[in-house]
Every structure is written in C-alpha cells, then in structure tokens.
Amino acid sequence: MAGASAVFIMDMKGKVIISRNYRGEVPMNITERFQQHVIDAEDAAIKPVFCEDGISFAWIQYNNLYLLAVTQRNSNATLIVAFLYRLAEVLRDYFNELEEESIKDNFVITYELLDEMMDNGYPQTTEVKILREYIKTQSHQLSVEQMRPPTAVTNAVSWRSDGIKHKKNEIFLDVVERLNLLVSANGSVLRSEILGALKMKSYLSGMPELKLGLNDKLLFEATGRPVAKGKSVEMEDIKFHQCVQLARFENDRTISFIPPDGEFELMSYRLNTHVKPLIWVEAVVDPGHSRSRIEYMIKAKSQFKSRSVANNVEIHIPVPSDVDSPSFKTSIGTVRYIPDQDCIVWSIKQFQGQKDFIMTANFGLPSVGADNRDAYMKAPMSVKFEIPYFTVSGVTVRYLKIVEKSGYQALPWVRYITQNGDYQLRMV
Amino acid sequence: MVAMRQKQNDGKFFQTTKRGEIQELKEELHANDKQKQKDAVKKVIANMTVGKDVSALFADVVNCIQTDNVELKKLVYLYVMNYAKAQPELAILAINTFRKDAKDANPLIRSLAVRTMGCIRLDQVTEYLLEPLRRCCQDHDPYVRKTSAICIPKVYDINPELVEDQGFVEILKDLLGDGNPMVVANAVAGLAEISQTCGRDLLDLDKGNIPKLLAALNECNEWGQVFILDALATYDPSGPSDAESISERVTARLSHANPAVVLTAIKVILRCMEHTENPEVLRMLAKKLNPPLVTLLSSEPEVQYVALRNIRLIVQKRPGILASDVKMFFCKYNDPIYVKLEKVDIMCMLVSDKNFDQVLLELKEYASGVDVEFVRKSVRSIGRVAVKLERACERAMNVLLELIETKVNYVVQESCVVVKDIFRKYPSRYEQVLSALCESMEVLDEPEAKASMIWILGEYAGRIDNSDELLESFLDSFHDEPLMVQMQLLTAIVKLFLQKPSSTQDMVSKVLQCATEESTNHDLRDRGYIYWRLLATNPEATKRVVLGDKPSLRDDSQSVDKNLLEKLSSELSLMSSVYHKYAEEFVTRLAVTPSGADEKAQDDDLDEEDRQASRREVQEELERGPDAGRNGSGGLDLLDLGMGDDSPPRTSGAAPAVQKVAVLPPTQAGQHGNTGFAVSAAFVRQRGSPTLMMTFSNSSSGPLGGFAIQVNKNPFGFAPTQQIACPEIMSGSSAEVAVVMTPGQLMSNTPPTNPLLLQVAIKTSLDIFYFHVQFDLSAVLVESGALTRDDFTPIWQRVGEAGQKVAMISMARPMDAEAVKAQLAADNVHYVAQRQVDDGSVLLYTSSQTPNNCTVLSEVAVSPGSSSLKVSIRTETQVLMPLYEAMLSRRFG
C-alpha cells in the first residue's frame, strides 16, 4: 500500500507551479523525467501511470495544468489517480477557476489544502464543504480561538456539520440522463448506454434523514409489490455518494441518507439497454465529378414523442480540411463552418419530436488536393441536445421523504432532463 | 446580496526580484507590524515555491513561529519542513514551539504540530517528537488521534528501532480498536506500511479483529475505506464461511462512487472467491462484479486505464467475468490512445464463437482509421482473433483481404505479418489472399513485413507461379537488408529450391554464397553452412527438415504468466497490477536496510574475530587452488599476508559471490520465434577453472528440457569441457548451471574485443537461444602465470618504456602494499618482487599469463594513504592492455 511520495502541479511545459513533498523519498527534480515521458513523448507512448527507475508516476491533465503524483512503493494506483481528480475539484471549487494564475494568487491556501487533504501520502479529508469550515480564504480569516476541526472530519457523517440553518427548507433533485450512442453508417446501433445521475441541491436545516424511492425494478421484485402504474427500470450498476447507507441498500434497496449541505451528486447509474437514436442524422456526401466541389445533404430526424422538444440541438458534421466558399441552405436553424475543427455545425434552437429537417451544404475545393483529403470521413458526426421533462430510461422518482427531528416541512422539487453523452454517428 | 468572496491576490508576492532581497526580507521579518511580518513570510514562501533557496532566513522565519494567526503558523511550519534538512542545528530552535503547540488547547494546533514534526526528517527532531506523539495518540479529540496514527509510520521511516523500542507499534495496534472510524482507518494504513517496510505482518488480521475493520469500513470516509479494503485483501479467510461472510459485507462497497473503493473491493471479493468452492456462491459473486467493472469504463480516462489493465488480469483469472460484455470495450472515437490500445487487447481476450463477427467488424473499422499506431494494433488484433478462433478465421481473412486492397502502406505491411501468422496456424488454407499480397509487395519496406512476405513466398513457392522471380528481386539487395530479412530470404530460397529444383539452382548457390562467404554475421553464416551441407549430403533429408511440419502457433502474447497472475490478483489496483510486474521488479529504490548494514560492517567495523576468520578463508581459498607449485615459485607469501596489520577488505577475493547479469530476457525470441526462456550469467574463474555460471529461468507454459550448450569461436578458444547436466525445469521455476570451460579449443584467431565477449547458444526443448556474456580478463589469467625475477627482467626490458602504458587506478579506500598484493592475487596477477622508494611508497612487480602464453607485466606503485595506484603495464600483446587496466579498475574501484 502506501500513498504518494509527492504531489506536483505543473504548467503545460512541465514547469512546477507548486508542489508538496510528503515523504521526502523522491528527489523533487523528478519532474524532468515526467517531461521526457509525457510532454516530449509521442502520443502512442504516453501512459497515465508509468514507472521509471523505481519511481511510479501517475498524472492527470486538468485545463492547462498537469497534476502529478509520484511514489516509490507499490501504491494503490486508482487511489492516487482518484485523489488527483479530487484535488483538482477542490481547488476549482475554492478558486472558481483552476489555472496557473489562480494557484499563484492563492498559493497560501493551496499549501494549506495540500497539507490537509493528504498526510504522509494518504488522502485524508477531501470533502470541500467541510474543508471550507476550517480553511478559509483571507476575507474570512479566523483567529486561532475560533478555529476548530469540524467534528465532521472524523465523524461517521463526515460530509455534514451540525447546526446548519436555512430559512426556507427546500431540496432540489435533478434526474439527468446522458445518452452514449454509436451508430454505424448503415444505421444499426453499435452501442447504446444511458448514464444517469441524480443531482441534488439541499437547503435543509439540522440533520435531516432522507429516503428516496425510484421505480427500481429490483426493489419492486424484492418487496413483491406489483407495479402500480408505468413501468419499472432495471439499473445495471448504481454508484452512490458516500452519504448513502450502502449496507442498507444492499439489504433492502432502500436509498436512505443524510445529505451534505448544498450541491452534490447523490447517485449515478448505468443502463445498457438498446435505445433508438433520439435524433437520427443521415449524411449524403456528393464529392462531384470534377473534385472541385463537394456537396452535403444532411437529414435530421427526431424520434421521440411529439409532445417533447429538444433544446439547443447542435449537429457537428466533419468536412475536408481544405474546403472553401461554404454555402448553406436550411429550413430551420443556422449553419456555421468552423475551419479550425474541420466541421460544420447546424444549430437548431428547438427541435420538436417526430419531425424531420433537411440542410444542404456546398463547398469549393482547391484543385490541388490535400494528401489525405478523405480522412475527414473517419471522424463521426456528433449531436448535442437537451430534452427537458423526459428520461430516456423511464426512471421516475416515486417519493422523497424528509424527516428531521424538529419536524419542519420541506419542499422537494424534482426535474428531469435527457442530454447527449458521447453521441456519435459514423459517416462511412 | 450574495456575499462575494474577496479575490485573493497573493500572486503579487512572486513579483519582487530585486537584489539584496534577502536582506530586505530579513528586516521585514523582524518588523513589529504583524501584517508586514506575515506578508514577509508569504514572500519567503513564494520564493521557496519558485525554487529559490531562502534557507538563509531560517532563524528569522522561525522567529515568527509564536503567533496566534493560524495561517501564519502554517506558513512557518511549511518553511521549517522544507529547510530543516538544510539547517539542522537551527531546526532544533523550533522544537520547543512544536512541543508547546502539541499541548495547545486547540486540537487543530495540536495536530498541526505533530503532523509537521513528523515531516521534519531529522533524527535529532525525532527524539523530541516521541513524547508529544505518545500523548497525542491518547488525545480525546479523534482529529488529533487520526493525525498521530499516520505520524507513526513517518517516524518509523526515520528511525525504526526507536519506534519499536518505544512501543509505538503496540500503540498503533491499540488504535485499531479505537471508537472512531477514521482513526482505525489511519492505523490500518500505518500498520500496513510499517509491515511492508520491515517485512513482518504487523496487522495480524484474524477472526478477532476482522469484525472491527468491517465495522469501521461502513463508517469511515472513502479513502479510509480503501486503506481497510487494501488490508483486507492481504487476509486469508479461514474457510468458505469466513470468506463468504467477508465478501457479503464488502459487496455493498461496489456501489460507491469512488473508483478506488470499487476496484479495491473487487480485489477483496476475488480473494474471497479463492476460498470458496460453492458454485452457486461463485456464480453469484462473479455476476455482481460485472456491472461495477463496466461502470469503471465511464470514469475519467486515467482511471479507465488502470481499470483496463486490471480487467485484463481479472478476465484471465476468471474467464466467466465480462464474457458477454465485449461490446462495452468497443472504442469511442475520442478515447485517448492508451485507453484504445488496452480496450482492443481485452476485446481479443473476450472474443468467442458467439461474438467474433461483431468484434471483427469493429476491428476493421479501427483499421481504417487515421491513427497509425492504433491502426497497426487493430490489424494485428484481427490476426490474433483468427489464430485464437478457428471459426473466425475465414471471416478474418476476408477482412484482411479488404484491408490489403486499400493499399495503404502501413496497413498492408501489418496485414502481411498477420497473414503469415495465420498461415502458420492453418497451413494450406485461405490461399486466395496470396495474389493480393503479391500485388502489393512493392509497398513493403519494414523488415518484419518483408521477412513475413518472404517467408510466405518460400512456404508457398510451389503454389505461386512467379515465386522465383519475386524472391530473386529481393536477392539483388541481399547485403542491404537487415538480418531478419536476410535470414528469411536464405530459408525461403532453400525452400524454393527444394520445390522447384530445376530453375532455381543459380539462385540457391548465390544466396548460399552471400550468406557464407560475404556476410559477417555468425548466425547467418552458420545457417548458410547448415543448409549447404544438408543439401550437399542428402537432399531428401533436407526436404524432411526444411519443409517438414512446424509446431503449431499459439497466441499467448497477451497472457500473464501463471505465478505472476496469482500474485497480481491479490494486488489489484496497485501499481504492480498496472505494470503486470512483480513489485520487487520496480520497487527498487527502497534499499533493503539489512544488506546495506552488512556491507558497512564488512568495510569499517571488522572486528578482530572477523578479521581472523577472513584471513583463514583467504588461506583456505589459496590452498585449494590447483597450482601447488605457486608458493615455491616466489608467488604469494602466505605467512607474510597472515601477519599483515591490515587484512584484505574483501574476505575471499578469489571467490566473491558471483554477480550474474541478465543476458537473455524472457521476451527475447529464440531461433524459431519462441519466448519464455531467460538466462542470467557470469563468466568467472572458479577453483582455478574458467566457469560459465548461469541461472536458467523458465517462464514458458510447459516444462523445459533437453539442454545443450555451444559457444562460438573466441580469441582464447574457450569451449565447454562437458555438456550441460541440467534436469527438466518446470514452468515458472529456475535452475543453476555451471559449465567449466577449457581454453585453447575453439580458437577464432581474432584479437580479443574490449570488453571480452563469449557468444553462447543454448538449445532447449522450446527453441535455440543465443546470447553473449561479458567477462573480465581475470577469468582468463592462469594460476601458473607467476614468473621468477630472472624470467621477469628480460621481458620487462625488452618491452621497454616504449611499450609501456601508465594507468591511474582509483581505489575505494587507501590500502597498503600487502593488501594490494592480496587483491592482485585474487585476479591471478602474481607478485614477483617489490622495492621500497624513498618517499615511503612501495613498488610491486607482477606478472600474469593467459592460457595461450601471452604475458602481461606491471609495476604497481602503492603510496601510503593515497587512494589511487599508479600502474605501469608492459606487455608484448598490446591488445591485452585495456583489458588488464579495466580488470584492475573493477578490482579496486
């Protein structure tokens, strides 16, 4: 076991912005090796976890920064990578943006956080809401007498402090589903996967205990209750925020928890069901005879109920890198050519269900063609969209019970939304 | 209004770069204004952050340590932590404050003091830390106790004896029973780390304390859960019911959002599965592992990479798991390349008669992509699928055919290699691809692709009409081709000749001539001669040899050796599981302390008893030597040596523990392309005979036997005195083999190279392997090389100053003349005479001889207290000079 020997935050050139040596085992100029193996290396040779001369490197990239941890023991690699992501999240939460400037402007707090979040290489408290209670930015600086480690740091409820008060007790629950989809050129769905998440914003006083009921198929089966109305959903794998009592869920599939205050993700789930593409795009490319023009005919079709509407639809279509003089014709939305991404984007603000639209695009091509002009065909088309009041899996919230010993009444608000995930349609 | 957080603007502290800055900072640090003082400390830390050395300010910064501002205190602590090593005396100044803070009323300050002291890695500080640490382990605040628990391994790292003597290991064990889950988790982490360092299992998990850990598992934070799960994975359940109850408690963790918790929990469950045989339970557990493993593929790419490397092990270990989820491993367009490459490997592991259609379609899609590296991998994977599944072969061949027709350079080259493998696995099938291959032959420029194409041409010479023309086109540029291609071309033309003897007579004699007369490569020459002689003596027998059935090809390039797999499946999620290597292979920097200590004892603290023992050993060693006449001929004066004041530092110079080096890695293929045999070797003189000491390791899947050795001609003509006597080696084990060499047998009549090399071929039941061993001149020099003064002088004068080379040899530590003599004797550099010079130094005259009677003489000047030797070498065989010098450097360095 054992954790990290040292942690570094570097810029894209590998220059260290800030670092913390936890165990004094590894020379701090070790980042030169990192440059060699990551920054100066060829793409195919880069690995996020690698070993060089007895020292293991694990790193992530976040915006324009590298976060690197090194160790010379047989440490838990997943733990280290997961910690780096958590570190990035905490810093981003503290500084709004995580980038070189924000770290320099806040180097004192960064050091404090590095000291508190990891000790001797072992991750400790990484819950940002709790950290904020005793590591403060300047304007809220406390004197020694006022400052105590929150009991939450070591409590079984390590994510919520005592004595939280809100004037209005409310809780918001968003069910957000992202659809990952890969469709072959002939229209068959190669892979479809739904990644769902229940995101909460909790503004509740005291120590409330919540119970959440979903139309979970296994729950219905377990209780032997017939499904009252609508269908039930079988979620393949569920991951919970640490506030959920896992043992309880394992026993009787009850989701019961004491929520952290503010925003958090309560749970995520995955469904591996076959889904018809919600928005189906077909491209007919006519390269023309003379190879001096290229013409696209794009057909987009919405395959969800006509009551629903997809908002902010963007269809990205790859084009050759050397096209010029674009001209577009469409019955709805707008089309833009984005040269540095070698694609055109067809944007449709509102796309009603059960409709189809056609867009045509025309480009000129230089007579001297680029070497691998056909390479653009390898990149898939992708689609972005958001459909409110709708979950593609059919997951619904049956109840959200809130019990607090003071007995206040709290209002739960529930919303549903389905978005694109990795939503790709191959052109050839 | 929403309270806006005031923007921190500490960036300004980085800006000053004036001269005399240190002095300025010094003044500011002593300012009365608290804010100014704090800003000054910030400036110091900012300087430290950008890598400037501000350790000169140590005393001034420590001066600010007495403060009730937590932020300032933390900064000063951070500074002390960083520079204590540079200013150990001054670091002591801070100790009192640390000790005082460790008693502070505020638990935050108490913890901070203990945590920081633990990070000051100085022995002097550690002493003062013990008492506060002991107190803080009993603190009423759990925050302080959890910090103290993690502090104990820090101190252990600096001074293990102290920690054990002072009973801190026991304290840590007591903390396992603490009421607070975080304290328990940190105690587990601490004990696990100390166990790893000292090599004893201090966690001592048994039915008594497992329930405590399981209880803490439910309550501690996510990282604590990982510490506990990692520890649980080292526990061997007492039986099926124990295993089942643990896995039952751990399965709930599979629903945790943190991937480290999930993967580590999977490890524990897989461990428990080892201890139960109930098929129902096994099936149920395996089913529970599928979904969380797939979900890991939706996490961040770096986590995915670790998960994928682990999934490879899991799938090999428990083939049922993920068997129906191959689609989940299909690559996304925007996956990073390292994820894609791993996914494709797993696709090949999961491919079956049920899903090969989908998999091949997907691989074909990747093979027409744009990323060259990934395209190549995909084409190779199509070949692996075909070799693995006979039923998929037809389909795979069709895909390859389509790919070859694209005429994309690297796709064709890679396909060529793959087709060769398929032909090897399924001979005489799918010949429709031959014409397509022949048509795209001109694009081949990579050695492996060319060699494969040539192999195919030779193998199918009878069925390709113009195979002779095609092969001839390669023959013209024979000498420009890399060895791999030359070898294949030689074999292929011989095959062609055997199938079409009438028209290819000229070609075969040309290629044999190229290989045997014009080439400088031994392997190629040997192979050429073998074919030549075979053809000359018995063409029918040649046919049986060259065109005979070949062993079938198996694809296990991606599978992990069984022993390694066992080890790694209990180390999932750890670094070793990512590298697929034993931890010992890469955890090299943690020097094992005991051996280091031994060495030290030998060098410096040799007490009288040891010295006598070592003298006895030297004496015995010398007496055992084969050359009894040596003493008489004025060689070593044993009596003199025995009575010398200073004993030789190395106890038995003639037979030190032989350091073997890896000469053949297990990944290096033999003549027929098989791998799995590794050799480490050393060629040294033992008991008066040059001996090749080897360790054979078998990492192939079956037993290895039928060992035989051959060495290439060499300057001293070494040849094995007898054949290897080595019993069969089972898969995963190794054996020690020593082969005595006789000089003067296989003379190459070439001058010796520097360094000296012995080229060795080992025949095994698996394949024939070639490697070479570097050796020292000391393996060559004979025991009987001592000259009398009368023989010495004429040669010394004959060579004269003109043929003399002077070398300075540096020694690890100064030695006197007697010690030097003994050292030289260990390498068969024999003492002839000595002379005292006025300045107190001693000149030693030595002689040594090679088996072919080349003599090397030297004058070694030993100056008292100097740690270098001046050596004047005279020999009539000039080529030996650098070798002689190198030998002495190694002996004394």
UniProtKB/TrEMBL annotation, chain A:
Domain of life: Eukaryota
Major place of residence: membrane
SUPFAM superfamilies: Second domain of Mu2 adaptin subunit (ap50) of ap2 adaptor, SNARE-like
Keyword vocabulary terms for this entry: Membrane, Protein transport, Transport
InterPro entries the record matches: Adaptor_comp_med_subunit, AP2_Mu_C_sf, AP_mu_sigma_su, Clathrin_mu, Clathrin_mu_CS, Longin-like_dom_sf, MHD
Compartments it resides in: Endomembrane system
Pfam families listed in its UniProt record: Adap_comp_sub (PF00928), Clat_adaptor_s (PF01217)
Cellular-component GO terms for this entry: clathrin adaptor complex; endomembrane system
Entry keyword Transferase: no
Domain MHD residues, every copy: 168-426
Coiled-coil features, chain-numbered ranges: none
GO biological process: intracellular protein transport; vesicle-mediated transport
Similarity annotation: Belongs to the adaptor complexes medium subunit family.
PANTHER family for this protein: AP COMPLEX SUBUNIT MU (PTHR10529)
Protein name: MHD domain-containing protein
Provenance organism: Effrenium voratum
From TrEMBL, chain B:
Domain Beta-adaptin appendage C-terminal subdomain per the UniProt entry, residue ranges: 781-893
Biased composition (Acidic residues): 601-610
Gene Ontology biological process terms from the UniProt entry: intracellular protein transport; vesicle-mediated transport
GO CC term (a single one): clathrin adaptor complex
Localization, UniProt: Endomembrane system
Comp. bias regions, Basic and acidic residues: 611-627
Swiss-Prot/TrEMBL keywords: Membrane, Protein transport, Transport
Pfam families on file: Adaptin_N, B2-adapt-app_C
Keyword Membrane included in the entry's annotation: yes
SUPFAM superfamilies tied to this protein: ARM repeat, Clathrin adaptor appendage domain, Subdomain of clathrin and coatomer appendage domain
MF terms (GO), sorted A to Z: clathrin binding
Disordered: annotated segments: 594-654
Composition skew (Low complexity), residue ranges: 636-646
UniProt similarity note: Belongs to the adaptor complexes large subunit family.
PANTHER family tied to this protein: ADAPTOR COMPLEX SUBUNIT BETA FAMILY MEMBER (PTHR11134)
Protein name stated in the entry: AP complex subunit beta
Native source species: Effrenium voratum
